[in-house]
Design a protein that fits this description.
Keywords: Membrane, Transmembrane, Transmembrane helix
Number of domains: 1
Number of strands: 0
Structural class: mainly alpha
Organism: Salinarimonas ramus
Distance between the termini: 32 Å
Pfam families: DUF998
Radius of gyration: 18 Å
InterPro entries: DUF998
Strand content: under 5%
Number of helices: 7
Helix content: over 70%
Low-confidence stretches: 1-6, 117-124, 209-214
Protein name: DUF998 domain-containing protein
Largest sheet: none
Shape: globular
Length: 214
């Protein structure tokens, strides 16, 4: 009986974590759309997400980033709860969970530090270093979690590796994209991350059983 109660508690906390992760992703999408519509002269195809977060209405995008960071932290908690599956490597899984948690910290710093290298005076600028760190952490998270995801579902594992490959190839290309397409390409990469987060949240919501994409 006690074991059943503990299991129900674990499943309940995992579902709560999945819900928070999903909500964080949806809030980020909403704030990006709202901010893009309200910011004077802003073009989501031409201008980057950082440009939107550095303007007069920066609080809108920063709110979304903070919500997303909270969602990532909840996702890390949920992934830790459900574990790596019957044939997964606990060390690799734990490493992936740590990468997701660190990713949450980096996103929060980007939002709360509120300095994007936009020529404001008096700010200590390390935004680009945080962007590099974010890119590395997400790539590592997808790779480290892959074996455990395959242990749960071949589709989920294949999806994770496809995201990893797209990220590893696409993220560096962003720095060579023509200026007029910065926003579109960056949002494509952001969409990749959001879809991955939503898929992982679904896995977490499913608990310790096998979970597929369908």
């Amino acid at each position: 009986m006690a074991h059943a109660r503990v299991r129900r508690t674990d499943e309940g906390s995992a579902r709560l974590a999945a819900g928070i992760a999903t909500l964080g992703a949806l809030v980020l999408v909403t704030t990006d759309i709202v901010g893009s519509l309200l910011a004077p002269g802003y073009g989501p195809i031409r201008d980057s997400i950082s440009d939107l977060a550095a303007g007069r209405l920066s609080w809108i995008q920063d709110t979304g980033l903070v919500a997303f960071a909270i969602g990532l932290l909840a996702l890390a908690f949920g992934l830790r709860r459900v574990g790596e599956g019957p044939r997964g490597d606990p060390r690799l899984w734990s490493g992936g969970v740590v990468m997701v948690a660190l990713l949450a910290v980096v996103v929060a710093i980007i939002a709360l530090h509120d300095e994007y290298g936009d020529r404001d005076r008096g700010g200590f600028v390390f935004h680009i270093e945080l962007v590099y760190t974010l890119g590395v952490l997400f790539g590592l998270a997808t790779l480290l979690l892959a074996r455990g995801l395959f242990a749960r579902s071949r589709r989920m594992g294949a999806f994770d590796l496809a995201v990893a490959a797209a990220w590893i190839v696409g993220a560096p290309i962003y720095f060579f994209v023509p200026p007029g397409w910065d926003g579109a390409f960056e949002r494509g990469l952001a969409l990749l991350v959001l879809v991955w987060v939503l898929a992982m949240a679904r896995l977490v919501a499913g608990g310790r059983g096998r979970v597929g994409l369908t």
